[in-house]
Amino acid sequence: MNPPGTHTVRLKVSPQAAHIVGPGAPRDAQLAAARGALQLSGVDLLTVLGVLCTSADAEVKQAALRTLRSMPASILLPVLDDPALHPGLLDLLVRLRPHDVELIDRVIGHPAASAATLSYLAERAKPPVPEPPAGASPAGAPVSGEEEPEPFPAAVDGNPDELEEVCAEALAARLQEAEDQGVSKYQLVMELKVAEKIKIAMTGDREWRKILIKDPNKMVHGAVLRNGRITEAEVVMVARNKSASDEMVRLILLNREWMKNYEIRKALVTHPKTPLPRALRFVGDLTLRDLKELMRNRNVSSAIASTARREFERRSKRGA
Fold first, then answer.
1. In contact, 204 and 227? CB cutoff 8 Å
2. CA–CA gap between residue 69 and residue 73 (Å, rounded)
3. How many CB atoms lie within 10 A of CB 5?
4. pLDDT of residue 167
5. b/e per residue, 218-247, with b = 16+ CB within 10 A?
6. Is 81 left (phi over 0), alpha (psi -120 to 50) or beta?
7. In this structure, what are the phi and psi dihedrals at residue 112, rounded to the nearest 5 degrees?
8. Is the dihedral of CA 226, 105, 83, 264 positive or negative?
9. Average pLDDT, stretch 243-259?
């Protein structure tokens, strides 16, 4: 039985990873994996290290934490391309590597990043609080030593979820009070903290989404695209907006259902933030009419225009 207020985190692992983190796994193999000495890569590597960071064996746990902290970003960044990555692994990474700017940016734009992770990053982004007078310490602050990040399951289990629920209730009450007082959402958004905007962005109605999608903070407008109520028509509007950030384009590209929508693919072909290889791939999906317009479009790269011209000529000859 799990302790009150917690639940079991279930992970799908490969057979190779199961031999290391599964029940009865030999300690020698776990310690070697924790030290990065085993031939693991990709999601298996991150998952195994994430699980070992929670080991009851102090030596294994500390070795796994050290390995994740010191691992080159070039090894971890490709793993973040997997949209099905467990949210707890993303949370663990940002807590262990708070100064890895590129990794943090990738996590912010990851479709699996949880509200708790985004809120944590939003809080860290705040300006530092001035030091208290000598002898005093902020409430709840550690007395000394480096802050130890929460291990993987704790980052997604129990108390963080309860804290989120309390915050959500308080925020809902605040929003209702503002509505009762006749305060518009446009006025209220000016007073909200980043973490509050993120929560609203992920659950708010169409009007909130319309407001927050324009927020300059990429954690906020990225959260709008994670809102379960967002419609494909709204996503089309984002894809057509040439000022949409690279993170917004990235999130759209990662969503398989959205990429089935012709209008979204068509808009991404001409979006300046769409990676060129992806844009070129979508050119082949366009209708003859859209290809004709694209090959004459002066606002796209020559590579896209010439590809559209070749595709148009190829299809025209085939249909002749």
1. yes
2. 10
3. 10
4. 52
5. bbbbbbbbbbeebeeebbbebbeeeebbeb
6. alpha
7. -95, -5
8. positive
9. 89
**Token pair belonging to 195:** 């973490």
Is 90 exceeded by the pLDDT of residue 114? no
Whole-angstrom Cα distance, residue 220 to residue 208?
Answer: 11
Q: What is the largest CA-CA distance in the chain?
A: 86
CB-CB contact of 221 with 201 (8 Å): yes
Least confident piece of the model among 26-30, 72-76, 175-179, 237-241: 175-179
**HEC per residue, the chain:** CCCCCCCCCCCCCCHHHHHHHCCCCCHHHHHHHHCCCCCCCHHHHHHHHHHHCCCCCHHHHHHHHHHHHHCCHHHHHHHHHCCCCCHHHHHHHHHHCCCCHHHHHHHHCCCCCCHHHHHHHHHHCCCCCCCCCCCCCCCCCCCCCCCCCCCHHHHHCCHHHHHHHHHHHHHHHHHHHHHHCCCCHHHHCCCCCHHHHHHHHHHCCHHHHHHHCCCCCHHHHHHHCCCCCCCHHHHHHHHHCCCCCHHHHHHHHHCCCHHHCHHHHHHHHCCCCCCHHHHHHHHCCCCHHHHHHHHCCCCCCHHHHHHHHHHHHHHHHHHC
Contact present, 297 and 271 (Cβ < 8 Å):
no
Q: Does the structure show a pLDDT above 80 at 159? A: no
What tokens does 119 get? 């809120």
Report residue 259 as tokens. Answer: 């990429």
- The reported pTM is 0.56
Residue carrying the six token digits 């606002």: 299
